[in-house]
Design a protein that fits this description.
The protein has 253 residues and is an alpha/beta fold. It has eight helices and eleven strands.
Length: 253
């Protein structure tokens, strides 16, 4: 897969956890863990796209590659797009910088979906909703997939929502068989699809649910999902950081 570029958007500022990319996690900055997961995937070149020299410096210290992008980028996707300019890879994978626990296999499977399904403009990942998590939680984004009872990757995404969906009607004979799917915030783009996406204006449903991927669906773009065992928590708050530290310490026991 040497025609694939992985870009990690890493914004310096953060409202809920300032400078979270450089926070200590198991003795290393958060961004270092995310970078290592991307490298471990073996998918392609890994590049951090940031808006601050401090992040560039830290990335270079642990042997990574980083590029500066404008602070005024409206989203991580726009940052990814700018970082990919002047390069030749035909597929660009967007792995969020605050996903230090993402599995290398999730990255590989997200990339493979674009290889296997030529109609896919964008790929992403989803997992069966964990039993210990409230599916009514609006912070847990649900992916509504076609053919939910058929095994295998590449299911077409019909919708993404913060609501509990699809609705399980009490009279449905399959109400106990169809799982909820939890969305994982990773995206694979064909270069042409990424360019189309960033040039689209924010859509009504995107602004309503505050979910960027709805812009693509409203524009008729095809999103297909890799199915993975679980979705790791992102680092959005100090509590998330502490939970991630406990997770890492248990892994090393």
């Amino acid at each position: 897969m040497n025609d694939i570029l992985i870009v990690i958007p890493a914004r310096y500022g953060s409202t809920r956890l300032p400078v979270k990319m450089l926070k200590n996690l198991g003795g290393r900055p958060v961004i270092a863990h995310t970078y290592e997961a991307c490298v471990a995937s073996g998918v392609g070149t890994v590049l951090v796209a940031t808006d601050h020299e401090d992040i560039v410096s830290v990335v270079k210290q642990f042997g990574g590659q980083a590029v500066m992008t404008p602070p005024e980028c409206p989203s991580g996707t726009d940052r990814v797009y700018l970082a990919a300019q002047g390069r030749k890879e035909s597929i660009i994978i967007n792995v969020q910088g605050d996903e230090p626990l993402i599995a290398a296999e999730t990255i590989r499977k997200t990339a493979q979906v674009l290889k296997d399904f030529k109609d896919a403009d964008i790929s992403t990942a989803a997992a069966p909703f964990p039993a210990d998590r409230d599916f009514n939680d609006p912070n847990a984004v649900k992916a509504v997939l076609a053919d939910p009872l058929v095994s295998g990757d590449g299911k077409r995404a019909l919708y993404f929502t913060r609501s509990a969906a699809p609705y399980h009607h009490e009279l449905s004979p399959i109400k106990n068989d169809v799982p909820y799917f939890l969305h994982c915030g990773i995206y694979g783009y064909r270069r042409t699809s990424l360019e189309k996406f960033v040039k689209l204006p924010p859509s009504a449903l995107e602004k309503l649910e505050r979910l960027e991927q709805l812009r693509a669906l409203e524009a008729g773009m095809v999103i297909r999902c890799a199915l993975v065992p679980s979705v790791p928590p992102a680092i959005d708050t100090d509590e998330d950081l502490q939970n991630a530290a406990r997770y890492l310490s248990q892994k090393t026991l």
